[in-house]
Amino acid sequence: MTAVFNIILPLLAGVSLIAALFFVTRAFSERGRSSRAAYGVGQVEASRAMRIDWVRALAAGLVGLILLAVFLMTLPPPPLEPAADTLAPPTAVSPIDTAATPTATLPPPVQMTNTPQPTATSLVPTVTSTVPPTPTATPEPRTAVVSSGVGVWLRATPSTSGEQVEYLLDGVILTLLPGVETADGFQWQQARTPDGNEGWVAIGFLEIEENE
User: Fold this and answer.
1) 98 dihedral zone (left: phi>0; alpha: psi -120 to 50; beta)
2) What is the Cα–Cα distance from 113 to 163, expressed in whole angstroms?
3) Is 164 helix (H, G, I), strand (E, B) or coil?
4) DSSP letter at 52?
5) How confident is the model at residue 174 (pLDDT cuts 50, 70, 90)?
6) 37 vs 29, 31, 53, 115, 205, CA distance in Å?
7) pTM over 0.85
């Protein structure tokens, strides 16, 4: 229904304005005919036709302007630029300190030594067997996706008045760092951007992805 009005309203407004222009043109023509007509019935009729055309032109123009105004009022407002320092209340997210994650450490390899038994003819050389070390499992870095609707600032300090380092759009993937702070009524997560900038982002604007 809205799409139909968006087509019909400007069309009717254009027709009304064209009609108003037509009546104005005809009124000027009638005015010229009135000035050229001799005194009498012809001049009176030309003057009367000119006045009628002026009234019609005024009415058509007024209708066209009203329809055009209604059409402009139905248009959606232009998108507003996101406020740089506007922060929505964060959702309750429990901070997870990645520094407290234990790292699996294996005991040192065991060396096995075989002692040769002496014989009458020769001595058996000592054979040393070394078990190769097992690589230490390193946890994958945790990431988060910016999700605020308009973007959010990466700040140099965990504060709403902190220096603005980089503006992060929705969908940007951040690498989470160990730092978690609470300031100015918000929880802040330390993070690193794809460009290598490090700073703090309000947790309420992040969707933290859990490693499987």
Assistant:
1) alpha
2) 62
3) strand
4) H
5) very high
6) 12, 10, 18, 140, 80
7) no
The larger pLDDT score, comparing residue 101 to residue 34, is at 34
pLDDT digits (tens, 9 = 90+) for 125-135: 565 656 667 76
Tell me the DSSP string of 63-105. HHHHHHHHHHHHSPPPPPPPPTT--PPPP------GGGS----
Closest CA to 20 of 49, 61, 51: 61
Taking alpha carbons only, the member of 173, 160, 149 closest to residue 200 is 160
Q: What number of other Cβ atoms are within 10 A of residue 58's Cβ?
A: 14
- Residue 99 has a pLDDT of 47
- Assign a CATH topology to domain 139-209: SH3 type barrels. (2.30.30)
Strands (E), the chain: 111-114, 127-130, 143-146, 152-155, 164-168, 173-183, 186-192, 198-202, 206-209
Q: Are 168 and 153 in contact (CB under 8 A)?
A: yes
The token pair that represents 48 in the structure block: 């009367």
Helices (H), 75-208: none
Give me the phi and psi of 20, to 5 degrees please.
-65, -45
Identity of the amino acid at 32: G
Residue of 163, 193, 197 whose CA lies nearest to 175: 193
